[in-house]
Each structure stands twice: as structure tokens, then as C-alpha cells.
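Run log // design_07
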């Protein structure tokens, strides 16, 4: 079974309530970490968190989705990036190359008080859906249970698609 298949299976368990995801919003990276660790039996941060973004003095030091995006891009796990001159990956390209179990990132969201972006991450599911931890008010078009959302891909702007080995 591939890493993507294992990650997809763990997402199914999370949706069924068999794998507990964070209840509070703002924990997208923690939710993805729990899914990946369940799926692959590894410490996600120890295995993949290699490059951190610069932080303002007032910012916290906990890992951010943007840290993980930079790490996976720098270490060669990024399989799709925006086309030249584009900020986001187009939906046609996403449908053509992305697979369920891929991690979808967006670095330019969730600014701290100092103005540094924390970023966001979700996991691609079957049928162009994304599993994410997000406040439901930001995903009115998604199916929401507390702060876990299954969102149509067209509403998830993406700056990197990463596939774990």
C-alpha cells in the first residue's frame, strides 16, 4: 500500500471518529500531523520539518503549516507548484496530477499579530474534496463537524501539493 493510500485510509478513520483530530480551530498542521503519523507510523515533525520560516519576535515558535510547506518544497516532496507568474495552482492541473492522500498547502493565510503568515494545510480526498481543520465560518461551502471540514477543492486555494514518500 502506498503512502497516499495509507494517508487516505487514516483520513477515512478520522471522518468516522476512529482517529481524533483537534476540536479547536487553528490546528490544521496538528490535524495533518495526526493523520500522517497514524498512516505512516512516523514522527511527522522529526521526519519532515527541516526548514522554518522567519518569525517576528512576537510570533510563537510552534511549527506552522508554512514551515512544513517550506520544508517539503525544499526537500523535494513538492509535486505541483503554481505555474510561472501565478500565485496558486490551477484546478485543471490539480485534477490532472494531484492524488488522494496528497498534502495541500497555502502559505499566504492566517497572519499573526506581527503580520507573519502561518499558512494552512489539508489533505486531498477522493472526488476533489479536502479534509481540513478550519473554523466553519471560513468554509460555509464545506461539510463541517466542529472544526473539521470536508471542503470542495475549488474553495481551497493551493500554493503547493506535496506527496510523502
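design_07 sequence
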Amino acid at each position: 500500500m502506498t503512502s497516499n493510500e495509507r494517508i487516505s485510509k487514516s483520513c477515512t478513520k478520522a471522518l468516522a471518529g476512529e482517529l481524533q483530530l483537534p476540536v479547536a480551530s487553528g490546528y490544521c498542521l496538528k490535524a495533518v500531523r495526526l493523520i500522517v503519523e497514524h498512516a505512516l507510523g512516523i514522527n511527522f515533525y522529526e521526519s519532515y520539518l527541516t526548514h522554518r520560516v522567519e518569525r517576528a519576535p512576537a510570533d510563537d515558535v510552534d511549527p506552522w503549516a508554512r514551515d512544513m510547506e517550506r520544508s517539503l518544497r525544499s526537500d523535494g516532496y513538492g509535486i505541483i507548484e503554481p505555474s510561472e507568474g501565478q500565485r496558486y495552482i490551477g484546478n485543471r492541473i490539480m485534477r490532472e496530477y494531484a492524488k488522494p492522500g496528497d498534502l495541500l498547502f497555502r502559505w499566504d493565510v492566517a497572519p499573526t499579530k506581527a503580520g507573519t503568515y502561518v499558512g494552512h494545510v489539508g489533505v486531498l480526498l477522493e472526488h476533489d474534496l479536502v479534509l481540513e481543520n478550519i473554523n466553519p465560518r471560513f468554509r460555509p461551502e464545506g461539510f463541517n463537524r466542529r472544526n473539521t471540514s470536508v471542503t470542495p477543492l475549488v474553495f481551497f486555494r493551493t500554493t503547493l501539493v506535496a506527496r510523502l514518500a
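Residues 55 and 163 are 26 Å apart (CA to CA).
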